[in-house]
Amino acid sequence: MKNATSLTSLALQKFKKNFWGVFSFWFLVLCFFVAVFAYALAPDDSKNANQMHLSISSRSPGFEVQMLTIPSETQKENTLASFFVGKDNTDTELPISSYRVTESGVSITPYSEGNLEGIEAAYKFSSFPKASSGDQIMSKYIKQQKFYLGTDKYGRDLLSRMLVGIRISLAIGFVAVFISLIIGVTLGAIAGYYGGKIDAAIMWVINVTWSIPTLLLVIAITLALGKGFWQVFVAVGLTMWVEVARVVRGQVLSVKEQQYVTAARALGFKDFRIITKHILPNCLAPVIIISAANFAGAILIESGLSFLGIGAQPPMPSWGGIIKDHYSYIILGKPFLALIPGVAIMSLVTAFMMIGNGLRDALDVKG
To answer: What pLDDT, on the 0 to 100 scale, is given for residue 79?
Structure first.
């Protein structure tokens, strides 16, 4: 146990010397924090950040506008659940270019693009239950709102959509890697340990699955299970176990010939205990490295599926879905609508690959 601890400490020290590995680790910690508290950080905390303002669609980053909030008659109490899944916001938000206080309430001019002027509309004090004067309406229901990353083609806050959308990317990585580890480690260990016909049968399944293009297999599984959030997760996980199984099988084939495994057999230990207690712990290094790569691969696959319309379904925000909605804007003079989620996907995938490279160097015994 002492030796294992010292090897772990040595690997940790080597990893700390890898600048990009450590930088990527803390970047991912920040991403996980953002994913958990997405609705607390998002300017638009409605469920799925789906508050639309068609009059201010496709605005550039830093766009500001005055916003009038007209409260709904059926107010819902904010619960702890809404902190994590968003609020069922039924209030109406109206972008306005100007307003003036009248004796009976407030008169506003809706925001419009160019030289066109919107038709003036009046709202009485009764529309604002917590305001009895013009000053209270101005302080409580009219605010200057800034869209730091601009708005999408439906006038939704792009920053809020990006913050909530990171949950999809990280969740798909966790679920897909978890499924791939369970299937891959189990089949790889059984094939490598028992050999013979069992090994041949499992390798046949692995080779057949390996020969099918990943994206094609994911699409087939997704169509079989149906479009949806969890269906995509399961489909991606069922296609990523093959590489894990091959690596685990190779490691088990070499480790099972070691003297301590022979001694465990001589002591009468059962195969399950030998595999789980003596063999697999010594095969974890390459599995950890490949899991980091699979994490990045799962994010890319989910983004591709969402781009094709098979992944997370609207109005649920997904980085791939945001690119799908706005890729045509690249040639229409507003490339930021597609480039921002594209850069986000690239950064997240690169971070996982950097961590994988750092772990590979840290766990390299020969190094």
So the answer is: 67
Q: Does position 117 have pLDDT exceeding 50, yes or no? A: yes
- Number of domains, the chain: 2
Instruction: Give the structural domain span for 347.
Output: 2-33+162-362
Joined together, the tokens standing for residue 180 give 């791939």
183, amino acid identity: I
pLDDT score for 2 = 46
CA distance 133 to 173: 52
Residues 95 and 240 in one domain: no
Whether residue 258 has pLDDT greater than 70: yes
**Which of 127, 156, 185 is the endpoint of a domain?**
156
- What pTM, to 2 d.p., does this model score? 0.86
Q: Please determine, for residue 1, whether its predicted confidence score (pLDDT) is greater than 80.
A: no
**Is the previous residue joined to 315 through a cis bond, with omega within 30 degrees of 0?**
yes
349 with 220, same domain: the answer is yes
Of 90, 86, 88, 76, nearest in space to 40 by CA: 86
Are 22 and 16 contacting, i.e. CB atoms less than 8 angstroms apart? yes
* SS3 call for 207: helix
SS3 content of the chain, % helix, strand, coil (to 5): 65, 10, 25
Strands (E), 78-199: 92-101, 105-110, 121-124, 142-147
Q: Strands of 63-70's sheet, edge to edge?
A: 121-124, 105-110, 92-101, 63-70, 142-147
User: Is the bond leading into 129 cis (omega within 30 degrees of zero)?
Assistant: no
Instruction: Show the beta-strand stretches assigned E in 140-277.
Output: 142-147
Residue 61 confidence (pLDDT): 93
- Residue 74: C-alpha distances to residues 70, 89, 105 (Å): 12, 10, 21
The CB-side HSE value for 207 (13 A sphere, CA atoms) comes to 6
Q: Residue 4 pLDDT > 60, yes or no?
A: no
Q: What DSSP state is assigned to residue 212?
A: S
What burial class does residue 241 get, using C-beta atoms within 10 Å of its C-beta: 0-12 exposed, 13-18 middle, 19+ buried? buried
Contacts of 212 (CB under 8 A, 6+ apart): none
Phi, psi of 183 (to 5 degrees): -70, -50
Q: Is 95 left (phi over 0), alpha (psi -120 to 50) or beta?
A: beta
Using one digit for the tens of pLDDT, what is the confidence trace for 269-328?
Answer: 898 999 888 898 888 888 988 998 899 999 998 888 888 888 788 888 999 999 999 998
